[in-house]
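Cont'd.
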Amino acid sequence: MTEDFTLHPQLAADTVPVGSLPLSRVLLANDANYPWLILVPRRPGLVELIDLDEAAQVLLLGEIAAAARALKAITGCDKLNIAALGNQVPQLHVHVIARRHGDKAWPKPVWGAAEPTAYEPKARDGLIAALCRALHIEPAKR
Amino acid sequence: MTEDFTLHPQLAADTVPVGSLPLSRVLLANDANYPWLILVPRRPGLVELIDLDEAAQVLLLGEIAAAARALKAITGCDKLNIAALGNQVPQLHVHVIARRHGDKAWPKPVWGAAEPTAYEPKARDGLIAALCRALHIEPAKR
C-alpha cells in the first residue's frame, strides 16, 4: 500500500518529520509562528481528498482529528485551522494548524501571511516529543 | 438533534442557500470568482471539527466528499480546496471551493484575495440547480 510513495521535495524542504500514523506521514512545518502539522497519506499519486477510497478517507479523518486534539492539548491554542489546498504542491497533504489570537497572521489564514520564523531547536524538539507522546507514535529518525 | 441551530448571521449574509444534507446545511458563497460551497453542520454550539462526535465527523466527511465530487463534476475545476478555518466566524463551517488555474486568487488561497464578484442571477440559479441534482437534495426555499 505504501510502495512507490515519495514525499514531495517541497514538503520535505519545508518541514521536519514527526513520525508516522497508520495512513499518514506526520510533518512539522519549519515555522515557529504557529504550531503547524502536515499530514501526508503514504500512497502514491494522490492529489485530492476524494482520490482516496472511502475507507482511507475515514482513516485520514481519524488522523486529522488525532492531530488536532494533540495540537490543542499541547498548545492550548484558541482555534484550529484544518485545510487541504494543494494549489502549489499537488501531493495530497492536510494542514492542521494551532492558531492564537494575536499570532502573526490572526485572524487571517497563515499561508503567505508572514515570513516563516526558524524554531529554536530545543523548542522544536520538545514540541515534536510532546506530539509523538500525544499521538502514540515513535519519533521519526532524523 | 437540529433544535436550537441558528445559522451565523455572517454566513447567512455571505451566501445563498442550496439545500440540506443529512447533517449539514449547504450554502453557496456569493462570489462568482469561484464556485464555492460552505457546509454547516446543523447542531448548536459547534466550533471545531473535533467538537463533533466521531460518527458525526464521518457523516460530515461524507458530505464534504459529496460536495467536492459535485463541484468537480459540474465545474471541471483544476483543484479543490477544502478547509475549516473559522477564525472570523466561529460557527463550524467547511469550505469546499472549485479552483481554476488563472482564477482571481490562483495559486493563493481565496480568503481575502479578491473582492467578491456578484453572480449573474441566472448563472447562480443554474449552478444551484445542478448542485441540487448532483447532491440529490431538494432546493432550499428562498
